[in-house]
Structure formats: structure tokens, C-alpha cells
Amino acid sequence: MANRRLVTVVGATGAQGGAVIRGLTRDVNSEKAQALKRLGDYIEMVTCDINKSDDVKCAFKDSWAIYALTDSWAQPDQPDFEIRQGMLMADVAASLLTP
Hints:
Blueprint (H helix, E strand, L loop, with lengths): L6 E4 L11 E4 L5 H7 L6 E4 L5 H8 L4 E3 L11 H17 L4
Parallel strand pairs: 1-2, 1-4, 2-3
């Protein structure tokens, strides 16, 4: 994978995933995560809690591009929760100098 441009996709097992290199999901053992992994050796599925800075840093490391989305369904009555997720991912991406 060293010669490829790494694209990291938050929510890879949802409608957003597909042709990815690194997919983030809550459960790498889920049926959807395993189905994505079977598409090719170039797909890496990673467990990540997008509410935890350390998880996001590890998941975003070495990414050429990041397609990030928040989880509006986790706490639909608390929009600040989703805003914090987005800000955390944006801050981590900026700190890693993703091109």
C-alpha cells in the first residue's frame, strides 16, 4: 500500500463506502465490513470511534484524502454531538497535514 494514495472513508459500511482503501466502521467483524474487505486486498477495514481523538488520529494517519461524515443518528436530539464529531475529524485531518 506504500505506493498507493490512501483514501480513508468514515462510515464505509453505509451508503458512502465502496471503492476505498481504508474504511472506518464501528465493527470490522460485521457482515457489511467483511463484504467490503472481500472486494480486494487493497481494502483495509479499521475499527474507529469518531468521538475519540486517538482513534481518529490512528485511522486518518497516512491518508491522502479523507471522506468524513458524522453520525447524526447516534444522538438525533443533540445536534452539538454531531458538530463535535465533525470538528474533531476536521481538526485531526488538519493536524496530520492531509493534502
